[in-house]
Every structure is written in C-alpha cells, then in structure tokens.
Amino acid sequence: MSDLSQVLIIDDHPLFREALSAAVNLAYPATRTREVSTLEDGITVLETDRDFDIALLDLNIPGVHGFEGLLRLRTLHPRLPVLVVSGLETEQIIDEAITYGAAGFLPKSLGREVLSTAIDTIMAGNVYMPDRLSDKPADNAQTAKHTIIERLLSLTPQQHRVLFMLREGLLNKQIAYELDVGATTVKKHVSEILRKLAVHSRTQAVIEVSKLDQDELFDVESRFLKSSEKALLTTG
C-alpha cells in the first residue's frame, strides 16, 4: 500500500467530496486530505503547498469545459499525478483523459472501495484503468505521446525555443525581444510550429506539449542537444 501524506480532492459535489475523503482516510489513516469545490481553489491550494502526492479530479465541475481542468493541472503541476474520478465514463472520454495526461480514470459507478487500488497503481508509476475496460486507451496514449515526441523532434532548435516560450505564455513581441529577432520572424516560426505539430492554434500547440510529462520533455531536450552537437561537429 502506498505511503501517502496529502491528497487533494477537487469536486463540486459536497457529498461525493466527503465520500472520497472518507475512503482515502479509511485506506490510508495517516493521510491528510484537502477538499475544494472548484478548479481555481485547487490551483490556489497547490500554489501555497506543493507537498500533495496526488489530486483526485472530477471533470464536470462549474467553470470548466471538457478537459480544461485536467490540462491546466498538468501544465501548472506536471509532476502531480491526477486521478480523474468522474461520472462521465464512456470509453472515448476515458481514452481522451489518459491521452491528455491523467494518471488514471476511476468511474464513480465503481464505488469507493476501488479507490485505494487506483491510487496504489498510480503511486507505483503505472496508469490505472478500470478492470472492465481494455488496455487500449493506455496504449493509445503511448502512441499519441510517441507521435508528439516525433513531431517535436522535427522542429528546428529555434522553433523549439519559440514553442516553449509559447508554453510559458509569452506573446510574439516578447519572444522576439528574448530571441533578438523581428516579430515577422517569430510569426513565421509559429506558423511552422503549428504545421509540424498538425494543430491550428497556439493553444492547441501548448495542449500537445502538456500531454508529455517532465521526463518525456527532458528526453526531447536531450535529443535536441545531441542533434545540435552532431550538427556542429559535421559543419566544423
């Protein structure tokens, strides 16, 4: 059984929040739980306390559309595992949740007794899927990540820098200042980034990157450095 210290529960339904908290405390008596009803409250909590081991997130909460909540948590706190606990449990939704970076998906219909199994699976570094579903969504997630990595590696070093500045929320003129290039050059880089990542907007490009965890992003960075070093040796 996992050794948990703190669990963050984000769900707008008070009775279900209490049920989740009770289930966590029953399975892990020494664990502290923090309950919030909105995504913004959850983000505020995480800004002041980074010692949470896992977040339990309901997809269908006020002020959040689709997978926005999951994507924001993954972008702001990429090392925090997120277990989606939701009443929306079609295979398509589960597949997309895993693809967008959820560490697991627990349908509310399965009951709270399965919660500890899901948490133990995730804390062991694995993706949790309900037994009644096949492993296809997790496999699809790995395939999607592989595709993203290959597309990122098709960028030039300068396009790579621009993309990660976009991820930090910088505007074109700010990127131009940081890279000491013209705004037109940045615009061309952004257009090429969108084309190579097969997306239609800056937001979609950032979402694609957010699907990768920190280790995968580090691997991309390392492969870029090796490629750059090889190019320097060749031209030298």
Describe the 3D structure.
This protein is α/β, with parallel strands linked by helices and 236 residues long. The protein folds into two domains: 128 residues, Rossmann fold (3-Layer(aba) Sandwich), CATH 3.40.50.2300; 93 residues, Winged helix-like DNA-binding domain superfamily/Winged helix DNA-binding domain (Arc Repressor Mutant, subunit A, Orthogonal Bundle). Helix content is 57%, strand content 10%. It is built from eleven helices and five strands. Strand 4, helix 4 and strand 5 form a beta-alpha-beta unit. Helix 4 packs parallel to helix 6, helix 7 packs across helix 9 and helix 7 crosses helix 10. The mean pLDDT is 83.
Q: Please write the CATH class name of the largest domain.
A: Alpha Beta
In the CATH scheme, what's the topology name of the largest domain?
Rossmann fold
Can you summarize the main beta sheet? 5 strands, parallel
Order of helices and strands: EHEHEHEHEHHHHHHH
> What fraction, in percent, of the residue positions are helical?
55-70%
Number of domains: 2
What coarse outline follows from CA principal-axis ratios?
elongated
CATH architecture of the largest domain: 3-Layer(aba) Sandwich
